[in-house]
Amino acid sequence: METLGTLFLSPFPPPQRNPFLPLLHRKPRRRASPNPPSSTPLIRSLQFSDPWSLSDGNSRSRFRPKHQRKKPLSDDDARRIIKAKARYLSELRRNQGSHAQTPRWIRRTPEQMARYIEDDRDGHLYGKHVVAAIQKVRALAGQPEGSYDMREVMGSFVTKLTFREMCVVLKEQRGWRQVRDFFAWMKLQLCYRPGVIVYTIILRTYGQVGKIRLAEQIFLEMLEAGCEPDEVACGTMLCAYARWGRHKDMLIFYNALRRRKIVPALSVFNFMISSLQKKKQHEKVIQLWEQMLDTGVVPNSFTYTVVINSYVKQDLMHKALEIFEKMRKSLFIPEEATYSLLISMTAKNGDGDEALKLYENMKSQGIVPSNYTCASLLTLHYKNGDYSKALSLFSEMERNKIAVDEVIYGIIIRIYGKLGLYEDAEQVFQEVENLGLLKDERTYAAIAQVYLASGNYEKALGVFELMRSRSVELSAFAYSTLLRCFVVKEDVDSAEATFHILTKFGVPDAVACNELLLLYVRLGLLDKARTLITRIRTDKVQFDEDLYRTVLQVYCKEKNLEDAEQFLEEMENNSFSLDKYTKTSLMALYGESGGLQKAEDVFKSLEQPDVVAFSVMLSLYAEHRDTSSSKTILKSLLAANGGLSVASQLISKFAREGNIEKASSLYGQLFELGSRPAEMAMSSLIDFHGRQQQLEQAEDIFTSVDPSNKGKLVYSSMIDAYVNCGKLDKANCLYKEMVEQGLSVDVVTLSVLVNALAKSGKFHEAESIIHDSFQSDVALDTIAYNTYIKSMLESGKLHFASDIFSRMIREGVPPTIQTYNTMISVYGHGGKLEKAIEMFNTAQSMGFYMDEKTYTNMINCYGKAGKSHEASLLFNQMQKEGIRPGKISYNVMINVYATNGFCHEASNLFQAMTKDGLVPDSSTYLALVQAYVKSHQYAEAEDVISMMQGLGIGPSCSHFNLLIGAFTVAGFVSDAERIYSNMKKAGLHPDIACCRRMLRMYMDYGLVDEGLSFFEEIKQYVRPDAFVYSAAVHFHEFKDNGSRAEELLHLMDEQGLLFHSNMRVGSKAKPS
């Protein structure tokens, strides 16, 4: 930039001079006397002078003798000619725009057309000599610097190229050295004349390769040559600075242009603000945007997009939205990324309505949201508690086939956790791991929080152990969750160590401090609590309401009223005033610390106690078992508006928290005062006793309810209690009673009851409930229909399951991917492969995301139908869709190959499974053994079992039975006995299938003694079986041991076993 340190960058241009020409400090000289006047030269000048002609730049005047020099024009005429010519050229180039070099249709006269055809262009853009010159100069790129002389290279082209053609050759060069050398040669030609266009070409080339210093030198040379740079040349220089990150020089140069009122083109502004934004200089982007608007340049879609991005990065939400509205009014359609930024910004700033408005506007434009946009909206719904909207958005993502990334899965896990759907959250987490997306520590922390919410801190700690084993680095948020785990576990040492690690990230937040402080209070470690409070004050932790309350609780536990009062004063100084709600909280704290009298004093200080204050005092009196005071407060509470509802809510609260003694006491006092608790309270008590397997207490509460006031909520809770206690018959009877009372059964109760009956094998009762709900026209939801179909699948009522699905479609209830999965299983079990394929294709056509489970289910159907080729194609298609097969998918596909005897394919797939990092299980090896046995490769099958044992995977009887069965059929008795011996060495007792195969072998081949010995060995391990005992009878009869045969026949009669009389010893034995 120093090379441009001329008057061009001066803040004050000199008056009466061209602002782009440098000031030449020359000594004034005396002007020579003019020649005698002559009229002829003057007349020729007036007749032939061209007002648009400029100097050709060769500075011929310095070589002319004085008597040949032309009379110079006045200063005003020179400035007029130069500026007029510059304006003309500038306007011409501006009108042509970016297509200045694009050939256009030109209207020519017939004579012009004939001459055009006869020239050497042959219809091309440039003449042959121009193309030859271009190639000649380009060929120099392969030669080292200084190895050639451009004058010698271009010697054959002297006087052959016009100035315009030389510009063309210059423009077509690719190397900056060739441009530099050719330009030096150009300036030696007679037809050369300095012009802004040729300098702009050179500036562009230097700017593209980053030769900024050379570009500055050329720009300075242009000024010295008397060429006034226009907005194109200046814009080229600005783009060069921007391209190579020379932002300081770019802004200095731009400010110089502003002082000279040169306005760059819109594309130049776009280049500059884009370059500034890439370097995160958003303030300068905004400043440049405002200056652009001041100059009257109309922005385009790209400009709006970049500027909105910078306003968002600067967290200027209202300004960003304002510019966004201007963009829309200008009829520009914003990009998805712009919508995404604005939605994310408005969601983070708490303006959820505006975020949803932007999303709806984006959908109206036909723009499909990205997964980043969906993640922002899901986070918004999660924070607002709109879980139904979040799940609806997730379904919409599946329909639009938007790829779900780990962030979205993490949000879904948190939503499921908030809804109490802990198993679903765990399944989602497992799905993320199977898909290979599990990388972010926040996903681990999310499932850990779910486990904590479900009360299973052991699983939560297991998640952190998994993170350590995978070298996942924990953030402060993850350590805070780990701290909560140790707090719930009441592991003081681990909690303190985790808190110490948190301090390395900076000052811990109020939540972490509160968690550790609560642990100390819960365990009675008041000394440690006091030390922690001192440290919190020293580190100047910003208190929140929960931390204030916990600290007050510590002071109350210590009965340190002086510190408590000082702390209360500090709360007031920090704008935590003691309003009635704070006083109510203080009442609770006093009561919990044993200061019931102080709590009463605070209660009396309330001018108008509300129902919340009454409920707190009622809770305190219940805690202290002060029945008299409790009744007095309860009377006052019942007299207040909504008091009965608050009392009922308090009972429900006690029941949910497990304080059943308080709940029962308050429940009895309400009855004594002649009030009936609300149905919600009764339901909560029944729910508690049902969860605790206290069926008698639940039945007592249910019986105590007035029959006229028994609503469906109480009935539903009692049915749930029966289900939890395993009393399904009573639950079914209560359901029938509920129906007889004319109460509508909610879909949740129906789903729970049908699911429980199906799992316990009471399929008839489950089917009856399903029929009743259909006849009663209960408005079933998708979950209820899915439960119905699954229960009928488990019961084997495949036709009825199909009818339920048809009814679901008729009723307009939208099926989910789980519905289609279940229906694929229904048709697969029924052998209706075409129907299963139809379900699979329908799910695809409806836009559902076809997950691994769906593909695996369909592959299994193909395998059962013997369609191994189609199953293999679908398995490959699943991988092409980006779905990584899991262990179950591999097992199913290997089993398909094994069942159909494709040993080689099964072995290859097994190898692919291990290469994918999946550990085969017992089912995998069982399928592999089956594949080898089907192909009569018995040695390989034995090797598979040995490999299992070597890896510490214990084989089952099924693994050995495959080999034993194959050897018995083939007549390899010794091999069958050897495999049987290996099975016993593995610590396995033969199952009934193994015993039948061995006895069948001994029977067929006439090995009577071996058969009897085997029978005596196994009869203590297996239950009495008709085939086993019948074989033993035949063996004894063959040995003429009739008494023993009679004993076994008598035993079979007692057991109700049918004797197989058609068995024959030695049916396959070779005659001797």
Automatic annotation (TrEMBL):
- Gene3D superfamilies named among the record's database cross-references: Tetratricopeptide repeat domain
Residue ranges of every copy of the PROP1-like PPR domain listed in the record: 267-418
Q: Which UniProt keywords are given for this protein, alphabetically ordered?
A: Repeat
Q: Which molecular-function annotations from GO does this UniProt entry contain? A: mRNA binding
The UniProt entry, under InterPro entries, shows:
Mito_RNA-Proc/Resp, PPR_rpt, PROP1-like_PPR_dom, TPR-like_helical_dom_sf
Matching SUPFAM superfamilies: HCP-like (SSF81901)
Stretches with biased composition (Basic residues): 61-71
Residue spans of biased composition, Polar residues class = 46-60
Q: In residue terms, where are the PPR repeats? A: 195-229, 230-264, 265-299, 300-334, 335-369, 370-404, 405-439, 440-474, 544-578, 711-745, 746-780, 781-815, 816-850, 851-885, 886-920, 921-955, 956-990
Q: Where is this region: Disordered?
A: 17-77
Q: What is this protein called?
A: PROP1-like PPR domain-containing protein
Specify the species: Colocasia esculenta
